[in-house]
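Technical note accompanying the year-one report. For the benefit of new consortium partners, we illustrate the data format agreed upon in the data management plan: each record pairs a sequence with a structure-token string. No post-processing was applied to the example shown here.
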Amino acid sequence: MGKKSVLMLVVLVPLVFSGCASTTKVDGETEGGLVLSALDDFNVIEGDGLVPAYKDTRRKALAINAAQYKDKFAAAEAVYNGNNGTYTLVLTAMTETDGESTYKLFVNGRQIGSAQNLASADDYQPAPHVWENVALAKGDKIQIHFNTASNKKIPEGDGFAYSRGRWVSVTIGK
């Protein structure tokens, strides 16, 4: 064989953003499921001991002002308008070097589960939290409760810095 052959191998890798496969979005639907944006699809709720949250538009996340609310929870709610069924829900939070926030998932006021971010040396990296076999019906209210937390590793003033509980989306898929 006098000619050299060149084998070209093409590997298709899904674009990963915020811990979930991302494709072209049409009315909130992607190949990975229905994506509910923290900023666009959830409304902040207050009362019953919950503190206000704010929109961190730079990071496309909901967050809590940790300077004002230490070790407190905020919450946001969206109404599910998809088909009835049993789904896997993936909450995409963000890592923060100053604390490991906790996230609680509720459907119609009933807590489905909770998860905590792992310690990280890098801020604002995707931190997916998965809940499987979640029954949803059209009109159900999905709530995410999230908190500020300090790991007491980063000095700030007379104390330590706190995470802000940042999260960007909930993906609902099979």
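Partners are asked to follow this layout when depositing records. Confidence is low (pLDDT under 50) at residues 1-30.
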